[in-house]
Amino acid sequence: MTELTEPRASISAAEFAEGVRKRLVQRWGVDEAAASPVQIYQAASQLVRDRMAPSWKCSNRRMAEGTTRTVGYLSAEYLLGRQLPNALLDAGMTDQFNEAMRELGFDPDDVIEAEHEPGLGNGGLGRLAACFMDSLASLDLPAIGYGIRYRYGIFEQVFDANGRQSEKPDDWLSAGDAWGYRQTERAQRVAFGGQVTEQGGHRVWHPAWSVQAVPYDYPIPGYASGRINTLRLWQSEALDGFDLQRFNQSDYGGAVQAQVRANTISAILYPEDSNTDGKRLRLEQQYFFVAASLADAIATFYHGQAHPDLSALPDHICFQLNDTHPVIGIAELMRILLDDFGYEWAQAWEITQRTFNYTCHTLLPEALEEWPRSLFAELLPRHMEIIERIDADFVRYLRDEQVDQERIDAMRIITRGEDPTIRMAYLATVGSTKVNGVAQLHSRLLQEVTLRDFHTVYPGKFTNVTNGVTPRRFMRLANPRLSDLITEGLGTDSWVADLSKLSGLEPLADDDGFVARFMHVKDDNKRDFALYAQRRYGFSPDPSTMFDVMVKRLHEYKRQSLKILAVIADYSDIIAGGSDNHRAQPRTVIFGAKAAPGYAMAKLTIQLINNVARVINADPRTDGLLKVYFPANYNISMAEHLIPATDLDEQISQAGKEASGTSNMKFALNGALTVGTLDGANVEIREKVGAENFFAFGLNVDQVHALDAEGYAPMAYYDKDARLRAAIDMVASGAFSHGDRDTYRKLVQDWLKHDQFMVMADFGAYMDAQRRIDQAYRQPDQWARKAILNIARCGSFSSDRAVEDYLTRIWMPGTRR
Predict the structure, then answer these.
(1) Domain end: 448, 467, 486, which one?
(2) Does some domain include residue 19?
(3) Within a 10 A sphere around the Cβ of 637, how many other Cβ atoms?
(4) CA 221 to CA 92: how far, in whole Å?
(5) Which terminal Cβ of the chain has fewer Cβ within 10 Å, N or C?
(6) How confident is the model at residue 273 (pLDDT cuts 50, 70, 90)?
(7) How far apart are CA 238 and CA 211, in angstroms?
(8) Pfam families of this UniProt entry (predicted)?
(9) In whole angstroms, what is the distance from residue 273 CA to residue 269 CA?
(10) Do both 555 and 697 map to the same domain?
């Protein structure tokens, strides 16, 4: 007997359909015959949202009045994906929705796809934040997520005829917002600029200008928990958006100047910041949402109190700083305590340290934010004073601890010199209770390299929480065929709420019938993706080939260049008529990635990949052997189609550079095998699934450091490896740029002269690993058994487990659930 845990709502399909009809008439004055899929989607979403409203209200009241500490998650990014299917699953209304849509004359999939996915994040950081919000609600933990309601979010990626990336605004709100509740009564005033004066022994900030932060609340339902937490995203608006006097004086631009300035703050995710204006806007964004969030939290837990006791604030809420973007919150809470409530410095600092915890998501120095002191002082003069005091106190503490001057200078929050900067990761480390990395290797490198001196001084601050992904979206919703097979194999669907139960699949890897059904699931998913790709992008990959996938943010350390060079090497072998019989296994290579608008080398790599695809796909000699595709604008919706269809997942960053990765977890849990370096969470995945079920290659962290120390010479690898030489020579010759040798000259020179991330050094080992992969894939039964073991042994990579680790190691140490 199958044990069912999925929620079941007390609504029939007929009632669902009738509720949609009523909302169509009330909002648009149409019936289902005249309605568009977008209108049906909006009406269905409103119905689901209305059904969740009582539970949402109850959850918010329990949070504000309860004795359990609330988690305040501060993040510049949230990549939620489409919200309707997730809400239907958690509300127990999926079957009713599907039947109701058919009754109304619509394909349920068309209605789901009518939702414009909100691109409120750039990559793994935003997807992780969304997973954690899902898990917090599913584990019945009170939480509120804070961020920005970007008008356009991350850009929409477009490729021109030459394969180059360009960016268009992502107008995700063009058809309205079915899920966000505007909460004008909770708006907060956020100030900038001005000066600080001394008045009666107190420092007083006189801001130069202010904006209004207006929250939009999004429900985050838990799976089978009854809890609905809130994601509160702030939109920046002018306090007085229209100057009638200036308009009447024909100064039309001046009449809306304040409105334009305010709207700019929440216009777009990560404005290009290579100049001072871009840096200023980024800092405005960060302070804007953090200041509004702290004020909102205090209002939530001390509503109506004339003289609140903020010494208890850490007992009500603990804020998790998701990377360095919200770290200004440490200075802001100090300002609130000192200036608005009159606390003495020592008590204010004790409260602040107990309130914040910091998650570091990088090992790259350039990703550890630093702000020019001059810009910071101009925009936030009072906060600059507070950070100077924190820095001075910290230096005194280090001296008292007998730390030598050289190390003190290296650890200062504010650097010395002519152009001092504020190191936000250092401020976060000093001002937080706990600092965590996001994979075992990453946390070790944080303690031994990136934040080594801080770990020496504060060893008790540091811990690890390996990332995870939500099985609701990335298995149950994205891969219903596999989910049904897992439920059949386990005899229960309770694994959706407890991924550790996947271990029960392990014996089924030796069950021929189960293995055959798993292979059918993968084949069906590949056929579905081929249809989706044809419909959405105009290409149709051959489902009989291996689907070899690399989808990640485009960055040099992630080494998309290594993958495309390997593809070129294989292409060179094919057109040369080489005798290497590894080509008996045809491949379809699929890339997905966006490059930051100002990242020239990343955008050049995208151009190369697109043009390699153009040449290979047009060459009849590759038919049945090799095809390459790069669909534009990779997002969660595409991932939900592609990941279940993937055979081989590429996780090939240079060892020691990837903090964790979460796509590696999604692919493994959906039955793909991984080729990867021993980097980030790859290390833990390989340990869990077994080395024989993971295709590891390349230098490890210690070898990278040793090679760098002895003097890395990338040209030597080019000279001795004929496969590498053939690939690079093709790029240099203009074979992928219509004969123009200059197009990729910078890439070629970088590979051969600099190669910061050691692509050349790992190329040979990578090619050898690919040959092992070809051999393994020629035994489909054995490949499927390996894939099943990956699923069975990756249950620990659930965001539910990660949130439990945060709970016991950081938010509420000693808690047992």
Answers:
(1) 467
(2) no
(3) 19
(4) 11
(5) N
(6) confident
(7) 5
(8) Phosphorylase
(9) 11
(10) yes
Q: How many structural domains comprise the chain? A: 2
- What is the domain extent for residue 737? 543-778
Say if residue 433 is in the same domain as residue 576.
no
CATH number for 359: 3.40.50.2000
Long-range contacts of 630-634 (CB under 8 A, 24+ apart): 630/159, 630/590, 630/591, 630/592, 630/606, 631/533, 631/536, 631/537, 631/539, 631/590, 631/592, 632/157, 632/158, 632/159, 632/537, 633/156, 633/157, 633/158, 633/594, 634/157, 634/551, 634/592, 634/593, 634/594
User: Mind listing the pLDDT tens digit for each residue in 618-656?
Assistant: 999 999 999 999 999 999 999 999 999 999 999 999 999
Predicted confidence band of residue 579 (pLDDT cuts 50, 70, 90): very low
Distance, first Cα to last Cα, the chain? 28
Q: What band does 364 get if pLDDT is binned at 50, 70 and 90? A: confident
Determine the pLDDT at residue 4: 61
In the numeric block, the tokens 């080019």 are attached to: 718
Q: Do 426 and 549 belong together in one domain?
A: no
Residues 163 and 279 grouped into a single domain: yes
Contacts of 657 (CB under 8 A, 6+ apart): 363, 364, 557, 679, 757
Give yes or no: residues 354 and 232 share one domain: yes
| Position 583 pLDDT exceeds 70 | no
Residue 715 CB neighbours (<10 A): 12
**Out of 65-69, 152-156, 282-286, 409-413, least confident range:** 65-69
Least reliable range by pLDDT among 200-209, 573-582, 651-660: 573-582
Backbone angles phi, psi at 180, to 5 degrees: -90, 125
d(CA 742, CA 732): 8
533-563 burial by CB neighbour count: b if 16+ within 10 A, else e? beeeeebebebebbbbbbbbbbbbbbbbbbb
Q: 110-147 in b/e burial notation, b at 16+ Cβ within 10 A?
A: ebbbbbbbbbbbbbbbbbbbbbbbbbbbbbbbbbbbbb
Residue 98 counted as domain residue: no
- Of 403, 433, 467, the residue at which a domain comes to its end is 467
Rounded (10°) CA dihedral 121, 122, 124, 130: 10
Mean pLDDT of 652-670: 97
Q: 390: how many CB neighbours lie within 10 A of its CB?
A: 22
657 inside domain:
yes
In this structure, which amino acid lies at residue 370? E
Q: Tokens for 363?
A: 């090992």
Per DSSP, what are the bridge partners of residue 195? 206
Contacts of 368 (CB under 8 A, 6+ apart): 324, 360, 362, 423, 424, 425, 450
231 and 378 housed in the same domain: yes
Structure tokens at 372: 């020019």
Q: What pLDDT, on a 0 to 100 scale, did the predictor assign at position 42? A: 97
Tokens read off for 256: 């809306």
Q: Indicate the burial class of 644 (C-beta count within 10 angstroms; 0-12, 13-18, 19 or more).
A: buried
Nearest to 370 by CA among 326, 421, 327: 421
> Does some domain include residue 637?
yes
The pLDDT score that the predictor gives to residue 1 is 40
Question: Catalytic residues, which ones?
Answer: 361, 552-553, 558, 662, 666
Is residue 122 a contact partner of residue 167, using CB atoms and an 8 Å limit?
no
Same domain? For 462 and 554 the reply is: no
Co-location of 452 and 559 in the same domain: no
